[in-house]
């Protein structure tokens, strides 16, 4: 307590609070447009046109900002592994040491869950999911991620004023106007299309693994009549239980996709709002929080995929035995 009451500590604290208060008025940061769907930034085989709240493709195939961010995340993964492994050493150090430590830790985790005999089979898909989700999530933390793009005029609703910086390059200022920003990059996992695609891949691989290890009898858990015998009532119960098994498999797609999407989208909105309110110092704790959230969500997605795979390759008889 005495240290906190030290005049130097009090002076630093008051100085930081003063800077925070001043920054809210001097460093006026416009609030980006928060929209659920990804926005087109180019058209393949066509051209962009102004829309009611941004841009749309008048013709051709839309190339969205989440697609661009997905490619950036893929490129980041490639570069990290390229520079980590291009000059491999027997005694690793630096980036190679960090990458090998993560891979070794994750492989040990897969062995603990799936068993040593299955680890080599399932490790590639699980590690790929974890790596992509991690890098895609963490791109939301890169300064300027959503700060560059097309400035377009809004036809309805309030926006921000536009100011020319130099030679046709514009910026938005925190004054009432009719312009908004369509960013060139948007965190990939804040697009529900991306997370649904990841969920479909994971659930499809679960079914493939089940058939590979059990053969066609894997589908007996969905089509249960004939698997058990015991009269009409038992048959009805078997049909009902098989229907519940099918619903649970489909529900995994929803839970996978919305869990990842919801957490990362909420974090992105939080990182938008805090600099808008108080630009200095206040956003820093939330950046630290999002580092943790991005890692946990990637880990949960990958490990749940592995757990569902292990459940799929164990036969019904083995379940009953346990």
Quick take:
The protein is an alpha+beta fold and 322 residues long.
Biggest β-sheet: count, sense, barrel? 2 strands, antiparallel
> Taking strands numbered 1, 2, ... along the chain, how are they ordered across the largest sheet?
1-4
Overall geometry comes to globular
Please give the alpha-carbon distance between the first and last residues.
Answer: 57 Å
Mean pLDDT equals: 84
In terms of per-residue confidence, which ranges show pLDDT below 50 for 5 or more consecutive residues? 316-322
Number of continuous helical runs: 8
**Range of strand content:** 5-15%
> Helicity range of the residues?
55-70%
SSE order in H/E notation?
HEEEEHHHEEEEHHHH
Radius of gyration from the CA trace?
26 Å
- Please provide the count of β strands: 8
List the domain count as a whole number.
1
Helix and strand content put the structural class at: alpha+beta
Question: What does it look like?
Answer:
It is a single chain. The chain is α+β, with helices and mostly antiparallel strands. The chain has one domain (60-148, 184-321). The protein has helices at 7-26, 65-85, 94-114, 116-138, 192-214, 231-277, 283-313, 316-321, and strands spanning 40-44, 48-50, 55-57, 61-64, 149-153, 159-166, 169-177, 179-183. The chain has a two-stranded antiparallel sheet with strand order 1-4. It has a two-stranded antiparallel ribbon with strand order 2-3. Helix 2 (65-85) crosses helix 3 and helix 5 runs antiparallel to helix 6 (231-277). The longest helix is centred in the last third of the chain and has 47 residues, at 231-277. The protein is globular. It starts with 6 loop residues before the first helix and ends with a helix.
